Structures are given as structure tokens and as C-alpha cells.
Structures
1.
Amino acid sequence: MSIIDNRYGASRPAAPEADGLPPREQNAQPIERRVFRDEIREKLIDGILTGRIAPGTRIVETKLAQQFGVSQAPVREALRDLALYGFVVNSPFRGTEVRRITPEELLEIYPIRAALEGVAAAAAAPRMDEATLTQLEELINTMRDAAARDDHWAQVAADGAFHHTIITAAGNRMLEHVWQTMRLSVTTCVTHSLTHRSLHEITERHVAVLEALRTRDPVQAEAAIRRHIEEPGEWIRTAGTAPAPGGEPAEGE
């Protein structure tokens, strides 16, 4: 079975002539092609983050184009985006592959995440409104429901959404861009920490972060999320275990 759904089989109209357009518009990427590129990129990211496309999987441009029913151009552009975001790597002999995160890289990620999300929490705390706090509380409840069902991937998805909500609430587009480039690393951190603690314990660790954000105190919020992220890194360092990105997650963070 294909790893990509064929959602783009419909025929497409020819691109309009560029005559008469300003030079900048003549060189602009067609809207249709940009849409396909974005859709393909997000479909691949979803497959990688949920483990349906495993680390080390070769991604062949021509096959993807056939599966999506598009030309190779938007596929090539989507893969270029994935490389920039750190989801895939290119090598002369193997082509494009889903990135494997090494044990050394994983341990290096935790302090970087703690610093980045600490900045986000400090910026987000004074901006917190009731709607955002309610959203965070609902995501914790979603994690609790997933833990009760022993649904690892649902818990990991809600965990990621919780952290992304805080990043978004910070209102810093550059910070969010940097965080987005770490999405694969963030998910690997989450899934790997599940090897050290239960789904229930991982879920409840988010409550302290939420309560700190409720105070709207930047110092408390930053300290809470840094502790939340740094502790799982210590579990891994102490245990001396290596990550196994992809496949079934062991535990979230």
C-alpha cells in the first residue's frame, strides 16, 4: 500500500500566460503549485510524526508525484521544505531519506528545547487569556483520555499541541519558526521519554506548567516549562538509553 493517499488525481487547468503581468508576478510561483507543495509537505510531515513513515525510509520524488497525481515540481519543493525543517536528509548515494535522530542529538535537543520554550512561556504568560488557558486544560484532558485508553500516539499528538499552543501564545513569529524546524526532534523527545514514565505520569506533568501560566508570571512560567523539559533529558542521561525514533512510541513528555 502507498504511504501517501492519492488525493490529487483530478486534472488541472493550464497556467495562464504571464504576458501583461508585472515582472514580479511573472516570476511568482503559480498559486496552484504552491497549494500542492503545502499539501504534500504537510501530508509527509504528518506521516513522519505519527510513525507511518519510519526513519530511514527512502522518499522517491517520481513515485510521490505519481501517488499524488501531480508533476514533480511541487513534490521537489515540498521535499526541499522538509530538508530545511530537518525532517529529511539528502545523500549522494541514497537520495532523500527520513532523518534518523542519534542518541547524541537527542540529548543535545533537551537543553535547546528548554531554553526556547522557556522564552516562549515567559512571553506567553502575561498574554494568557481564558480561552487559551481553557484550550491547554482541554489538551491535558485529551492526554488523560489517551492515557486511559493506552493510546500512545493520541497522547503524543495532544502533548505536541499543548506545547505548540504555548509557542503560538508567545506571539513571536521567529520563535515559532525555529520551534517548527524542531518538530521532529520534539516528537522524538516526547515518544522516547515514554520509555521512562507511564502515560499517566507524563500527562500530569503538564498540570504544573498550566498552573504557572495561570499566574501570568513570566518567571514562574519559564521555570515551570524548563523543569518540565529538562527532567526527561536527565532520565535519559541517567539511564544511558538510546532513542529509537519511529515505530511505537515508548512514552511522551
2.
Amino acid sequence: MPEIEWSTSALGITVREMEFDAIAFSRQWVAAWNSHDVAAVLTHFHDEVLFTSPVAAAMYPETSGVIRGKSALRHYWSSALEQLPDLHFVVDDVYRGIDTVVINYRNQSGGLVNEVLRFGDDGLVIEGHGTYLESRAEGERLDIRP
């Protein structure tokens, strides 16, 4: 994946931005998941990926929700699919950052989820986080202010 590079000399750092079609990636991602094709999902992940999820923590408490490496991620996702044969995602929105894509979707239960994916220089996901909407009473609005 080509990158745009610029330097912020005052800070002495170089930032690289992905030239990347986040929408196209998200379409491939959701198609692979909805086909229950773990191998296709994993083609976008680095061998040394780090993935966190509260679902992983529930399924494998000994991991504390942290899955390390593509092989362990394959095992986790394959096991999850066995337990959730009706798994299906509908993407609501896609957000793109410098080296990050956030896929906002609803799962088979209608639950709102964000998949936060950080990409390495080789264009593969090096870090991912499954995040789930906090429960609140129906109609309750969050009023978070300083």
C-alpha cells in the first residue's frame, strides 16, 4: 500500500499516511465475515497481529481478551463461528485515520460494534480491537461534560 510521508520538523518525527481505500477494504472484510470465511478475513492480518476483544475474554478467560498471532486469531475466530452459526454483520460506517480504519457495524444480535484496525507499513493489520457499545437504559442519553 503506497504511503504519503511528511515530516514535522519541530517535533522531529515522520508521519506516514496510508493511501488506502477504506470502503473497499470494509466491503471485503464484511463479505468474508458474512461468508464465514476466516481464511479470507485473515489475509489482511500480519502473522504477529495483536487483537483484543471482550468476546475473546469471555471465550478464553486465560487470555484476558488478548489474542497474539495469526494462528491464535484463526483458532479464536473459528471457534467463535462454531458457537455463532448465524453470525452476520451489517456495516453502518467506516472511519479512516492515518494508519487506522474503524468499521462501525451491527452484529447478528443488532449489537453495535466497532472494529478498530491499525495497519503496518506492509498494508497488513498489525493490531485490532473489537469494541462494543456500553449498555444503558432505553432512551437514556449520555451527558458527558467536563
3.
Amino acid sequence: MPETFHVVPENLHNALVEAAYQHRGFTAGESAAAARFCAEAARHGIRTHNAIKALHLDHLFGSGARGCVPGAQIDVRPGRFPAAQVWNANRKLGQATAYAAMDAAMKLADHYGIGMISVDNAFHYLWGGGYVMDAAKKGYIAYTNCTAALAEVVPFGGKFPTLGTNPHSWGFPTTAAIGYPIVIDWATSVVAMGRVQQLAREGKPLPPLAAVDEHGLPTADPTRAKYLLPFGAHKGYGLSLINELIAAFIGGSLPTLRNRWNGETAEKHTCCFFFQVYHPEAMNAGAFAAGRDQAENVKAVIRDVLGHGNEQCLLPGQVEAEAAARCAQNGGLLFSAAEIKAFNEIAAECGQPQWNLADFKVAV
């Protein structure tokens, strides 16, 4: 039976999210960036990284601990490479930092054809796909990865979690070709911990071989899941390791100490971000077959991939685009009854009015 969703006006959602962040000491600008991000996650059906997850993460590891500093200022480090910048985020809110970094990378790409921003001392930015999608809608090819808030993934063949869920996110400017940007965005575990939390809220099981319990035994019960497993065995392990190595070159420290502020004081405990943006013009070899230009060639390649009997295949980003279209059709953001209950807990925390489920129409 399809799940029932209720339509929440975006301005109502954003007002509550901004109030919640400002209640925790964040500036108006940081809170607006957080609300913008959470609305985009909800709009595109990313229920594992909506405002509920964002504020829960901030409570556990951010302003509620020592991982995030409201009002922190970003330091841009001096360097000799004009198309690359290195930032010290000073534990600024991850969403505000990530939007600023992607904007800076796009400006560099406008000038140099490519832009790269490496961010040290960061707090987790949540859904990387949202940032590359934004850049792709503006005409750029974009990539980002980060180290996750905690090491909670067991390496292939191991028994103790020493890796984060460590996502990779790519965005491609394909709106002219197919109506939406292709966004390839995945955690390197079978599921993200946000998905475990969502399934626990909804009373649904985990997929097979996604997690283990405290004894290291596989479990499909999200309430018993202690650690996660990499997808694709050694392949997901290798992709997760990439993030840890990039972070190590930037300035990240030991994965097992990340966001564990009661541990070794000589080590750092923060995340790292990495952003790259490419201007499509900088990649254009000008020798496309059959007289096509670059845009026509991209469209032709996608058409060929989805041909030959593959017409029913989905493209990455299609599900998100369909979710956004459904939100637009209903005139708001879509949430389950369980999620609205969680929003009322947030409202109680920051002294905002409760939401009445009956006030929200059921989505079609």
C-alpha cells in the first residue's frame, strides 16, 4: 500500500527550520542556508537527510557537542594555485559552508575552466547530491565528497568500523537533454545511517547485508543495527577509502576519532569536504560525430544508453526529479505523519507553534 504523505507549505517548513537553528545559536544567514538545504532535500524525496536528520545530527555532534560552532568564520588559506582554494571552516555549519564552497568553485570554473575547493575542520554537510544538483542546474559538471560524521562502516573483511559512510556525488547539466540534471549520489555503505533511522521510525526492515548488530552479526532490524557494511564488498570499501585518503591530504585526522570529542586531544575530530567544478566549455574537443555540437552529443549518448531495449531503465536523478515534480503538483513539501510528529518535537524545543496534521491536505 502506498505511503500517505501530507503537504506542508514550504514557507512554514522553512520558518520552523530557521527558528530551530537560531534557537541553537546559529546566525540568520546560517539558519537560512540550513532551511534552504532541508527544503531541497525534502523536495527531492531525500527523506534520510531532511530537517529531522539535520537537526538530530547537529544535536548529537554539532552545536550540541563540539563539532559545530554557530557563527564561525571561514578562513581561506593562502596558496599558489589560482584554480584551487583551501579553506579552514573552523567548524562552521556544514550546509552554509558547502553552499559557499560550491559557489566559489563555480566562479573559479568560470575563469579557469575548473575550480577546486578543499575544506578542513568542517561539520558534515549531509546530502552531497543537493550541492552538485544546484551546480548542474546552473550549467556545470560538479563533484563533491566528504568524510562522514562518524566511522560506522566495517571495511570489507574486517570486524570493526573504521570508515565513514563517505558519500560521492556527481551532477551533470543534462536538463536541456532530458529535463533534469543527472545526479549520481551514493553513500559507500549499503545504506546511510539516516536511512536506518528513517526505517526505524517507519517500522520497516533493512535490506539484507546492510548492517550488523553489536555482536557483529547481520541484522535486518534497524533498531538493532550497530554498524554498517560497504556496498559491493571490496568495491564500496575502496570508494569509501578514497574519501578518507583525500581528507588525509587536506588535513583530516584519524577516522575512528572523528566527532568523538572525549578522545585523544592531540588529534583532530572534524570532517573534510572536497569540491570540484568543471565548465563544460573547458572539456569541449570540438570533434563530435555526425556534425553534433556538445549538447546534441550528450543527448545522443543518453539516448543510446537508454535504447536497445533499455527504455524502462531509470537515470540517476530521475527519481529525485519526479519527487520534485510531485511536490510542485501538490504545492508544498511532502511528509509522513511520523515525520510531522518529529517536526512537532522540533517545534517544542524552540518554542514554535505545533503543526496540526489535519491542517495539511493529503498529497496526490
